[in-house]
Design goal:
The complex is a heterotrimer of chains A (327), B (166) and C (374). With 327 residues, chain A is an all-alpha fold. Chain A is built from 12 helices and no strands. The longest helix of chain A has 34 residues. Chain B is an alpha+beta fold. Classes of the chains: A mainly alpha (327), B alpha+beta (166), C alpha+beta (374). Chains B and C meet through helix 1 and helix 3 of B and helix 2, helix 5 and helix 6 of C.
């Protein structure tokens, strides 16, 4: 998508839309397969092997199965909200794709408030989860949804403080500026604490283990998407994996150099491959963490955010500001 | 303050340690066996349902239908009937039926058999569509086993007739 | 543990939650009626009986040797231990003496069974807490034990291996080699488990100071086994009332101090290591000779009397109490299941804890419901 396409703003928009939709679907399917394979190999078993070579077509078949299932509406559930919730959870993550810096000239829309846009839209997922939990007319789904809201709000703060540390270093909210500033050295080396805090908060934001109490596989209740069946559940599921991709892509751009190679050495490989390599590596790390640790109890989760993450990220921000002012 | 920081650092290190363990396992060989394409060899002591053993000298079983197995079985699995042989002093079994759905594989019948003609088979792929499929006729089973092998079988009975071919 | 901040609430705030017989975690058919006030439990009432099969009545209608398969099926995770215990009770009733080799073999297979039961508990406890991987690692190790026991008894879970006066098959050199290979393998695995679970800060935070059982409470409710040892009471039947050849082996009784879930976990973990020690010593000093006493009658008809044999099952003190009236069938067979006391102490432990801790506490007690219901 080079700047040479002068009168083709519409073409650019439509192409961008198709790429975003196509890429996000393939990405979600691929990530479902990758999760099961990573889980399998960590657990000394092969994961899906039957459908397609090494189970590659498994997620496609799962999608077909979900589409074929009946959409059950619980009695006395709020019909409109019930069906709007999965759509509402999937829509904002697609918006996040617009500003991701895939390569030097491969940003669909290089806004100068890109960072702000992504985080503003990512909070929509919280609203969607609450809507889904409320509309289900189920005590336990509501409990799960309310816990998810509390968790998301608590972890939003250290997330944004960590991002802010990077932003004040670059003095810009635009993704391409931030990535360009990392040409020589990645910010993870300059701001390791902020990077770690960002990654932990991102895992909590996407409701992944070990912070996955609101999600399914909770001990007593099945989480906020208990009552959803078929594609409604499918959309929640896909939204989770797409959200995971977005937060890892942002981590890559903010801390791991985006499309830049290590210390400026790019070995002739185009930037988009660096970007995707780093993003998928971070996704692999998140999956690895999921299959290693037990779940954190809910009050300990909140304590961890308010008593550990926020003070550390605040301290990091202050130190960054002081250092920038002095040097 | 120091203990707060220490707990964060050591807690974090313990998490990294755990991740190293699972990372190492990613590269270790898998332990899953892709059944039914691969099968695990059974141990020589494996207890499948009981069957009659055929002996080298007679080429068939030596069940005398004494009924000890039928009496000792705690689950009423075995039904034995015999006919008196005119020449021999003991009976010979004419019917030996087990209802495998009730068998608990305790082995009391195998131990109390006076002619040692009962043994455990190595059958584990037993599947049927009705309860009647679990009723196995051991006389017919040993007859088909003897037919299948050209030479008389020794003890061991490694040949499987496959499923519930009665 | 989080403290209760609120004052005693009005009664309309208390609601009843049924932790139903169909349970997501693998405890069996356990049902607990919980009265909750928000997140805190006010009253807990375990309901048992969903798995009652009448084993004690079955014992009255069967010959002594016909009851052997039943013994494995009560606590299916300690099948060999219960086999062993029943055989001990009958031997005490009839005066049959097993040869030395048989005693050593019975000790070895019982301790292997104990390790496999603790490994399964470890895996399922972690799975309850949300860590899915240690379950598969524990089962991978357990497969080796099951293969060893399969090679000697022919069965993986419901062994009817012990007989009155010995065991039904002798062990051969292959068994000894397999067991030694297994012990060598486990020696390398303990550090892995420690790094993955025991030192993990998330796991420690979920089990420390959770579900504290007081010593006096444990004594009153008849809590035995690792649960009691975690409270600080060093009571183990193998040391207190030694049976078979346990008094010839050198092993420690691990104890805790606080009686919380973390202590129970650590006690069971250490018990697995001590069992490995016992097995090693038994293999080193395994005598030759017969594996079954000679001239055991086909039908055992003891004289009138009674016998009581207590043994250390994986869950605590289990016992068989047999009363004979001179016939070929027991007049009465009572089985003491350790999980009965272990479960009922929860009526005192669960109140004032958080709902999120209930699963952690239930898992750490290590109950097997079919054993309670028999």
């Amino acid at each position: 998508m080079s700047e040479g396409f002068q009168g083709s703003e519409w073409l650019r928009v439509i192409l961008g839309l198709l790429i975003v939709l196509g890429f996000s679907q393939f990405n979600a399917l691929f990530l479902v397969w990758l999760e099961r394979k990573v889980a399998g190999h960590i657990q000394l078993r092969p994961g899906p092997m039957e459908v397609g070579p090494h189970g590659l077509l498994q997620s496609v078949m799962d999608g077909v199965k979900l589409v074929g299932k009946e959409l059950i509406l619980p009695l006395q559930a709020d019909k409109r909200l019930f069906f709007v919730a999965p759509v509402m959870v999937f829509m904002p993550v697609l918006v996040g794709f617009l500003v991701l810096p895939f390569g030097p000239n491969l940003i669909i829309c290089d806004m100068n408030v890109g960072v702000l846009l992504v985080f503003a839209f990512s909070t929509f997922t919280v609203l969607a989860i609450l809507t889904g939990g409320w509309a289900s007319n189920n005590k336990y789904a509501l409990l799960g949804a309310v816990r998810s809201v509390a968790q998301n709000i608590a972890y939003e703060i250290p997330l944004l403080l960590a991002v802010l540390s990077v932003v004040i270093m670059v003095n810009s909210l635009s993704f391409s500026d931030i990535v360009n500033a990392q040409k020589n050295i990645w910010f993870i080396f300059l701001q390791p604490a902020a990077g770690l805090i960002y990654l932990i908060s991102a895992v909590a934001e996407t409701n992944r283990a070990p912070f996955d109490i609101p999600e399914a596989e909770s001990e007593l209740v099945a989480g906020f998407h208990t009552e959803y069946s078929g594609m409604g559940f499918g959309l929640f599921f896909l939204a989770e994996y797409t959200n995971m991709f977005i937060v890892c892509a942002i981590a890559t751009s903010l801390f791991f150099g985006g499309w830049n190679g290590l210390f400026g050495i790019s070995l002739g490989i185009p930037g988009v491959f660096w970007f995707l390599l780093k993003t998928y590596f971070l996704i692999f790390v998140i999956m690895w963490v999921r299959w290693t640790f037990p779940r954190v109890r809910f009050d300990q989760l909140m304590n961890f955010s308010w008593k550990v993450m926020i003070p550390v990220s605040l301290a990091n921000l202050i130190v960054t500001a002081v250092v920038i002012k002095l040097f | 303050m120091m203990s707060y920081l220490k707990s964060i650092v050591f807690g974090g290190l313990s998490l990294v340690e755990g991740m190293a363990v699972t990372f190492r396992r990613l590269f270790q060989p898998l332990v899953t066996v892709q059944y039914p394409r691969e099968k695990i060899p059974l141990s020589h002591a494996y207890r499948g349902h009981i069957e009659l053993k055929s002996f080298e000298d007679t080429g068939t079983h030596k069940c005398i239908a004494c009924g000890s197995c039928e009496r000792v079985c705690p689950s009423c699995v075995i039904r034995v009937k015999g006919v008196k042989q005119p020449a021999a002093s003991s009976k010979i079994a004419s019917q030996y039926i087990i209802d495998f759905s009730k068998c608990s594989l305790c082995g009391l019948c195998v131990e109390c058999c006076p002619t040692h003609t009962l043994q455990f088979s190595k059958e584990y792929e037993l599947v049927g569509e009705t309860r009647k499929d679990c009723i196995i006729d051991l006389i017919a089973r040993i007859a088909s086993q003897c037919d299948k092998s050209k030479t008389p079988e020794g003890s061991g009975g490694e040949k499987r007739t496959g499923g519930l071919a009665a | 543990m989080a403290e209760r901040q609120m004052d005693a609430p009005a009664t309309e705030q208390i609601y009843t939650l049924n932790l139903g017989p169909q349970h997501p975690s693998t405890h069996g058919v356990l049902r607990v009626l919980l009265d909750l006030d928000g997140e805190f439990i006010v009253k807990a009432d375990p309901v048992i009986g969903y798995c009652h099969r009448g084993h004690e009545k079955m014992a009255e209608n069967r010959l002594y040797k016909q009851f052997l398969p039943n013994t494995s099926r009560m606590d299916y995770l300690s099948g060999m231990l219960f086999n062993h215990g029943f055989v001990l009770a009958v031997e005490r009733l009839t005066g049959i003496e097993a040869p030395e080799r048989a005693k050593y073999i019975r000790v070895i297979v019982s301790e292997l069974n104990r390790i496999s039961s603790h490994l399964l508990w470890f895996g399922t406890y972690l799975m309850d807490l949300g860590g899915f991987t240690p379950f598969l690692y524990a089962f991978d190790d357990r497969e080796h034990i099951l293969d060893i026991l399969d090679s000697v008894s022919g069965s993986r879970l419901t062994y009817s291996y012990c007989r009155f006066g010995g065991v039904c098959r002798d062990v051969d050199q292959a068994f000894v080699e397999m067991t030694r290979a297994f012990l060598k393998r486990m020696a390398g695995r303990w550090t892995d488990y420690e790094k993955l679970v025991s030192r993990n800060i998330i796991f420690i935070n979920r089990t420390r100071r959770v579900g504290v059982i007081d010593r006096e409470l444990a004594r009153q409710y008849g809590v035995t086994g690792p649960n009691l040892r975690a409270c600080g009471v060093a009571f183990d039947v193998r040391k207190a009332e030694p049976y078979e050849v346990y008094d010839r082996f050198d092993f420690d009784i691990p104890t805790g101090s606080r009686g919380d879930a973390l202590d129970r976990y650590c006690v069971r973990f250490e018990e697995m290591r001590q069992s490995c020690r016992i097995i090693e010593q038994a293999l080193d000093s395994l005598p030759g000779g017969r594996f079954l006493a000679p001239k055991i009658p086909q039908k055992i008809i003891p004289t009138k009397g009674e016998a009581y044999a207590a043994f250390e099952s994986a869950r605590g003190l289990a016992a068989f109490y047999l009363v004979s009236d001179g016939g070929s069938r027991p007049y009465r067979c009572h089985i003491r299941a350790p999980s009965f006391g272990n479960l009922n102490v929860l009526t005192e432990v669960l109140p004032d804890t958080m709902l999120a801790d209930t699963i952690s506490i239930l898992g750490s007690i290590d109950v097997v419901i079919p054993e309670i219901d028999r």
